[in-house]
Amino acid sequence: MFIALLLTSTRTCVSTRMSCLHEAEVHVCIVILSKMEKGKKTLGEKLKGSEVRGRVNGHHQENDMENLSLFEIIKLGKSATQSVVDDWIESYKTDRDPALLELINFFIHCSGCKGVCVSEMFRHMQNSEIIRKMTEEFDEDSGDYPLAMAGPVWKKFKLSLCEFIAVLVRQCQYSIIYDEYMMDTVISLLTGLSDSQVRAFRHTSTLAAMKLMTALVNVALNLSINLDNTQRQYETERNKSIGKRANERLELLLQKRKELQENQDEIENMMNAIFKGVFIHRYRDVIAEIRVVCIEEIGMWMKMYSEAFLNDSYLKYVGWTMYDKQGEVRLKCLTALQGLYYSRELNARLELFTSRFKDRIVSMTLDKEYDVAVQAVKLLTLALQSNDEVLTAEDCESVYHLVYSAHRPVAVAAGEFLYKKLFSHHGPEDEGRPRRGRQCLNANLIRTTVLFFLESELHEHGAYLVDSLWDCASELLKDWESMISLLLDEPYPGEEALTDAQEAALIEIMLCAVRQTCECHPPIGRGPGKRVLTAKEKKTQLDDRTKITETFAVALPLLLAKYSVDPEKVTNLLQFPQYFDLEIYTTGRLEKHLDALLRQVRDVVEKHTEKDVLEACSMTFHALCNEDFTIYNRVDIVRSQILDEQVDKFHRLLEDILQEGEEPDEDDAYQVLSTLKRITAFHNAHDLTKWDLFTSNYKLLNSGLQNGDMPEQIVAHALQCTHYVILWHLAKVSEGSASKDDMVLLRRQVRAFCMMCQRYLNSISTVVKEQAFTILCDALLIFSYQIVASGREALEPLVFSPDASLQSELLNFILDHVFVDQDEDSSTDDEADKIEALHRRRNLLAAFCKLIIYNVVDMKTGADIFKQYMRYYNDYGDIIKETMSKARQIDKIQCAKTLILSLQQLFNEMLSDLGCNFDRSASAFCGIKELARRFSLTFGLDQVKTREAIAMLHKDGIEFAFKEPSPQGEGGPPLNLAFLDILSEFSSKLLRQDKKTVHLYLERFMTFQMALQRDDCWLPLISYRNSLQVGADDDTLSVISGMSSRSSARSRRSKQPAASKRKLPEGTCALNHNYESSCSSSDVSMWVNREQSGPHTPVMMSSPHIVSTVLRDTKKLCPEQGYMGVYSMSNETQHTPLQQPSQVAWMMAQKQQQERASLQYGKMRGHIQHTIRRGSGLMEDDEEPIVEDVMMSSEERLDDLNEGMDFETMDIDLPPSKNRRERSELKPDYFDPASIMDDSVLNVSMF
């Protein structure tokens, strides 16, 4: 009865298979019937022609929405996708050709094409012809199309497009997709579009095809489930006895199974067409976004329908694509695999894939793209959970070391891997362990952490290890009781006690965990730094800090008593009070433990003389001496007692030494040194001005200068202590409460101390000299004009500026002690000592460079620093470059004069070494020229900002070139004429009108005979004049870059300028011209006649961070990055102020000389490039950055791990895509692994 009613009410829904309707088909028909009965309009009234009228929330749209295309409806997003699909299905059932035409235009418009496929084209043209027609109508002026456009509208459109395809297949899965018309047409269209040369067509159609495939996979999965259920029902019914068996039901189930099998075959054919027609060719598309779409969807297929897709035939595509050069593609491969490895059920099918591509996944943990590296570590963690033996010990170790990575997400992922591997396995013997004490489970895990920390030979940074484990093992790292128990409690019988190294490592880990708990931010160098904590995080922080104080207030004195003789352990233990909540000492009645702590700290001060230990004691008293808490008086008394004892002892020992007048013996020297170390360490954090240490230290330093028998360590600490005395005195004066006498006293002390440091620069001890130099530079910087900034004009009497002799002495110290080669520094052969020595030299250079950029010393003293830029680029290049940048911010013109001065100094040094008849192909000259090129690059691209500076640079260079007369007598070239060849490197930075002005200034120094010279010795003048021509190409100025071809040089012909006469005054080359018309907005008098300016007004600047100890990678010169020919003339007319009757002959001779120059420098090119490029530390980063490899450099990510490994990204060399004709030759069996398994794809055997 029900079926009969259904047949009469839904005639349009009946098909030839109605006799065996599936339950879901009946449900759909009922829904359609109810809609037809409730609607006020019939289907024919709702649809006019082929136009689809959408509905919003079940209601028909207004008239302005009726004429919108399907693309516009989806783009607006105002209609529910379900309603849009239902309306399209109704129109398709009414007249399928117009509805299908609307769907075709929808995909075309989604690609950004404005063309329309009309019904005539649809009926009479093939897909390839339609696509060709649409390609002709595509707007190629703009590269934007909907999927590539930015903004929320287009982002939502992409989601709506994907949803539309999914809903369309879901709504059509019971009838329409099997009509052998709609799906065939759509698949054929999308396959054709995916082969288009137009990126928009290819990208959009690939996305649509992949989403269509995903929807079909879902349909196939449902069919498979229904088929299994039907088969099971059939078997159950057939196994019944004959009397209970229902034959009619068996026939229905048999018929249903047959129909489901037919449907499944059709779906498989559709998926086969899409996979072989689209995916096989587009997963290796040249566009990364298209490859990403393919890999993302195949991951979905394998996860949704693992029975059909999770096999090696499909996994191999993901494995191959892991070698992709684009990080986003590699990232999508890893995320797709994570969805598979996450399920333990699917893991068993990944064994072959894991064994084949495991090495690649492990290598991707060092990927240059940090996101890829993070996901690679997470993937290995998932693989580890399923099978603990899937990774070898070497594989695990390569991930372990990443916990010390500077990139926090990578380190956190590696920390989780480490925790899963080492800490998450609990055996049956762990069940009965106590919850506290040495034998608890956490104590065993803490032991494991300590062992791992000690075995990490590459790193010694406990803070990084703790931060990496913090997210997954914070509860373990906060188990202070277990840690303290391991340190203080005696081991149980049969238990192995901690070794000395293990105890030190445990104390360091415990300190790092306490710091991480209280500060709530990653260690320095990892992460953005401090952040604003939420209310919950603040409460947790306070609770943890209270627990830390209560626990360690009792345990810390005991730990100090046990390890009081071990400097390393004591240094770490003394840092705990910095994180205490001092109020707990009072509220928790822990005063006796505070007294015990103070006694232990005092005992440590008396026992130790190590700098780190004493500074830790000083910082402990600084943390406890807080006037806001009631314990201040108790702590201050102990601190005063310690300082009184040490200062009195120092004065007594010093008096004995000075009265004897002889060299102090070892015992006396040791006593003085140990006492001075304690005083200096405490003076760093505490004000000791009331003890008048300046007088005592000054006497000690003066005695050392007079007698020369004072030990170097005593002098070094005396200098440091005196420096602290002056700084604390300055802090007191800066508060405004000091008297005039205090100001006068401080002024005298500063000048006397600076003179003392200056005298110690000539000490025979390297330690003393370096200490004196560093302190002197800091003092000069502190008491420079900067001291009066921010409203501190009252401190102006304290300003101390170094005189010329002191500046010269400081500069000579830098030249003698910093710019030395590693080979010359033969004081040590140990590599670590050499690195430490380099670090000290860098600090010395940075201290002096700060004086330059803050105008404490004359900027021209920087010339001797700048000229070392190329020679010592590997060691000091970053410091020198930053100094040049800051100097240019202070005074552009003076900085330019300093740069040209450095080049002039190098040129004079070369002349003194090689003589005046040197070869311009010599390495020394080429090096100067290359340095000039690098200086030119530092001026940037904004020629307007550097206009005056560049002009002044050329002015000084021209004057230097003609400064000295010719050593050959009258008629010969000036001694420094070759310097013009170096100066030409800066011609490209001149504005067009300024080139004319510089050329006119050059002619002031030229005689008429000079313009007629064509010998090789005059080539620098000729090339420099050519570089100043208005029409010259700015990129053809470098002599060493390469030469213009002879043929092009010969083919150029300059027009003969009109000859006119002018009178040349005697001894000069007069400039009789109209400057306003030739130089436009330039004024030659602005810089040609510019006098040396007076003292430059200092500019207040914030202190820069320039003392970086990280050495950059050496970069090789790229041939394409710079060198071009130089002596080529412009095609434009070459104008010259020399307008004598012989000018025509001069121009012809100039052309001939240009050809000779090309031949000459063509021979020089090979030697020049070898000389310039043989140093690997040249500053090529001033130009374009060199494209780095996909994998991280060894310096950035664990040098030792990269040894012996090849992390180069594999270039996939795949055969070209098959065209549409060749696709008919593909194997038809879609689900046969052999049909997909094609070894020719990579030309290697995969499994």
Major sheet: arrangement of strands? 1-2
Got a strand count? 2
**Gross morphology:** flat
Q: Helical region count?
A: 53
Beta-strand content estimate: under 5%
The unreliable regions are 1-64, 1032-1151, 1157-1247
For the biggest sheet, the summary is: 2 strands, antiparallel
Please identify the structural class as seen in this structure.
mainly alpha
Structural Rg: 42 Å
Residues in helices, as a percent range: 55-70%
Termini Cα gap: 59 Å
Say what oligomer this is. single chain
- Overall mean confidence score, pLDDT: 77
GO cellular component, one term: chromosome, centromeric region
GO biological process, one term: chromosome segregation
Signal peptide: 1-15
Main location: nucleus
Question: What's this entry about, in short?
Answer:
It comes from Cyprinus carpio. With 1247 residues, this protein is mostly helical.
